[in-house]
Amino acid sequence: MSQVAETGTAVVSPTRSGPRLARLRDFALLPVIAVLFVVGALVDRAFATTDNVLNVLQSQTELGLLVLAETLVLIAGRFDLSLEATIGLGPALGVLVPAWLHLSAGWSIPICLLVGVLVGVVNGLLIVKFRLSAFVLTLGMLVAGHGLVIAFTKGASIFKLPASFTYAGSAVWGRVPVSVWICAVLFAAGIVALGFLRHGRALYAIGGNVDAARAAGIRTDRVLIVGYVIAGLLAALAGLLYSGHYGSVTASQGNQMIFQVFAAAVIGGVSLDGGKGTIFGALCGLIVLGLIQNILTFAGVPAEWFQAINGVIIILALVLSRLVSGKAQD
Amino acid sequence: MTEPVASAVAVTKRYGNTAALTDVTLAVRAGESHALVGRNGAGKSTLVSVLTGLQAPDGGEVRFGGGPAPPLGDRAAWRRLVACVYQKSTIIPTLSVAENLYLNRQTDRGLISWRRLRTDARVVLGEWGLAVDPARPAGDLNVEQRQMLEIARALSHGARFIILDEPTAQLDGAAIQRLFRRLHGLREQGVTFLYISHHLDEIYEVCQAVTVLRDGRRVVTAPVGELPRPRLVEAMTGEAQGLTGTAAGRPAVREDAPVALKLQGLRLPGTYEAVHLTVRAGEVVGLAGGGASGALEVGETIVGLRTAREGTVEVAGRSVKAGSVPEAIAAGVGFVPHDRHASGFVPTLSVAENATLSIADRLGRFGWVGPGRRRALAERYIRDLDITTDGPQQPVSGLSGGNQQKVVMARALSGEPRVLVLLNPTAGVDVRSKESLLGIVDAAAAAGAAVLVVSDELDDLRGCDRVAVMFRGRMAGEYRRGWPDHGLVAAMEGVSGEPGR
Question: pLDDT exceeding 90 applies to what percent of chain B?
Fold first, then answer.
């Protein structure tokens, strides 16, 4: 209650936590990550090696880009489930369209990314201008996207990928895979944009109170549409890295990833109600999930148990972050 | 005579076939606080949206300082001239105070410097007398601080003409007095206000001039000194009448009437202490006190929304299980929550469904809700409580504030309660609805219910047989019918040493 004394005659209010504490919340998961490292090192000596850490990072890059994309949309108070379809549809069309139209393989990456942009535009326009439910619309887009990949590939995987895909997914610059570099740069850009740019802050304002944002002169419709487009673009990029990494575009690419995406974001402190959370927090959530899975692999958990355990991990990580942050989730 | 700061000249606004404003002229002079009053639906909100450039008038024009208003699309220009602080806050709780102040103008270009933003914010907040840490999340601020933040934001845009829409609706007595002092200070710094309120007392306290709207037309504009309260009410309602003490017609409660509600030694540390109170059947008792008095919390304890650490609540001689709303209802308690928007009704559901929400179990067996019985009950309430609605099936969101509150009242009465607990029952409703709501209270008491009215509004308390006053969590005195206004107000503010029994 020291605040009361300071403000003197001014308006006073009871306050439970100081302003600094709120900022610490961003770093709430860092101790958890540290603990996981120690646990991992105790489970297996190979865990705490550079190779393994890079391996964990690379295996999380595709998921990471989706988390980045979803975080943008969630902070603005909306949903995008279709990301998990774009991660397959983008690379599939990136490979197939040049073959259909007899274009050079150099078109693959632009087409892949363009697919992401188009999905984002459709989502954005229908949700913002036509006022459809974001949840159900993007759910429809998800089902349709998966279906299109199956239709185009006739259910078979594509193994003949252009060299540009393979390079992006597997090249290494100075021991660190290119995909990790890309992911790191984009996350850094996201942290700066949402922390220090007016347009980034507009996402928070919209997610916090869309009417107030509009009253302050923010072009809320435009910001939201651009948000969806960037999210789609990031998902297509994730698809490109994913295909390059595993050397194929599978018909079921991305299946069920969206659950992990939401899990990482919420564990990292991003609110499903909008206006709350940071990119850095979501990144921490992502790393926590990745580390736990890696530790389980080292611990020799049989593969057929993975999915069940994955679900339990998400719930445990959620409980953990609730305990660490001390704040109710919504 | 100098040009008015802001004026509406012969403004007309139609929505389809209905005229919201007809030929309304309003001139607000620099440095004055001008009251805008009228019953719900009189056209106040439409006039505000025309004055703030959110809607174009169909006829007439808006002028600022003698010049024409900027084009509708130029929001920035409007923001430099006028701002409205609405009842619904436009503060974003998840963002910091500083960021709210500089929303969408955190930086001209490039990266935001949070340090500079906070420094600038501290200066602006200091200038207008709001000493809060700019780095705090705005969600930590109380209603009063958020309101001041909105005013400071408007002023920092350059506007010196500010419209306040029901600024005291969510404030307690002490906070209202602080707000008035601030408004006075701002007025001396050259800020002009258009002040919208249902509380006529406030208008006489704060404003110099008043304009009354009725049915979309201006009825009168006059200095407040020339328009005494009865004439003001008459101008608003179109007929000569005022809030009369309803209790006058009710016979005094007999001393041997059974005790319906008995509070014994209720204690919730930090909120209230040693609360004792009895209400007899057929008696209307007021529990008066502002925001920090604990009165509201005592009310919420009776109905099971809160749990007292010590003490008991007895209804008709039997103690009620603490902290359970279903138990309280089962024991015969009906209640009106203090904020109807937050917990009074479900806006998307119909009048019928809302009115019968707490007695759904009596409408049919095995969870089956009988639509016929529900409809019949709802129609009875619509008739008895005089609810203006298209019918029982209309969603409550489509009703006016006063009628919404009547639906909440209907729900409270639906269980035919022995004890009726009303928390701020007339907050934010117009004069006529207020009267009719208080009439309903009276009728319930006459029918034998024990009524506890928890409020800090004199109009609510005037009909009470007795008023118990709370201050800082303790009982501060009890007043019998015929109490002097100033004595009661002084007790609520903790000024008087002696309760005037």
Answer: 34
- Domains within chain A, CATH numbers bracketed: 25-325 (1.10.3470)
Please classify residue B315 by burial: count the beta carbons closer than 10 Å to its beta carbon, then call 0-12 exposed, 13-18 middle and 19+ buried.
buried
User: Residue A24 to residues A19, A29, B70, B78, B303: CA-CA distances in angstroms?
Assistant: 9, 10, 45, 39, 39
Residues 182-201, chain A, touching B (beta carbon < 8 A) = 192, 195-198, 201
Instruction: Please report, as a single letter, which amino acid is at residue B174.
Output: A
Q: How far is A183 from chain B (nearest CA, A)?
A: 22
What's the rounded Cα separation, in Å, for the pair B186 and B128?
A: 8
| pLDDT value at residue A86 | 96
Question: Is the model's pLDDT at A17 over the cut of 60?
Answer: no
Beta strand extents in B16-171 (DSSP E only): 18-28, 33-37, 59-64, 67-68, 82-85, 161-165
| Token couple for B150 | 């909105």
CB pairs under 8 A between A and B: 90
pTM: 0.74
Domain B246-492, what architecture? 3-Layer(aba) Sandwich (3.40)
Pick the residue with more confidence: B240 or B33? Answer: B33
Contacts of B123 (CB under 8 A, 6+ apart): none
Q: Which of A61, A36, A8 is nearest to A286 (CA)?
A: A61
Q: Where are the domains of chain B?
A: 6-91+141-237, 246-492
Q: Which of B69, B84, B83, B95 is nearest to B4 (CA)?
A: B69
Q: Give the up-direction half-sphere exposure of residue A276: CA atoms within 13 A in the CB hemisphere.
A: 20
Residue of A nearest to B108 (CA): A198
The predicted complex's ipTM stands at 0.78
Which residues of B fall within a CB distance of 8 Å from A216? 90, 103-104
Q: Which of A90, A273, A221 is nearest to A82 (CA)?
A: A90
Find out whether A260 and A65 touch, Cβ atoms under 8 Å.
no
Q: How far apart are CA B312 and CA B320, in angstroms?
A: 8
**What is the C-alpha to C-alpha distance for residues A50 and A32, in angstroms, rounded to an integer?**
20
The CATH class of the B6-91+141-237 domain is alpha beta
Evaluate whether A325 touches A25 at the Cβ level (below 8 Å): yes
B246-492 matches B6-91+141-237 in CATH topology: yes
Residue B23 CB neighbours (<10 A): 14
Contact B288, B469 (CB under 8 A): yes
The Cα–Cα gap between A77 and A59 comes to 28
B130 contact A CB<8A:
yes
Terminal CA-CA length for chain A: 28
Range with lowest mean pLDDT among A89-93, A181-185, B135-139, B486-490: B486-490
Burial of B270 (0-12, 13-18, 19+ CB in 10 A): exposed
Residue B254 token pair = 């007999």
Residue from B286, A3, B108, B191 nearest B277 by CA: B286
When pLDDT is cut at 50, 70 and 90, the band that residue B395 belongs to is confident
Is some CB atom of chain A closer than 8 A to the CB atom of B132? Answer: yes
B451 three-state secondary structure:
strand
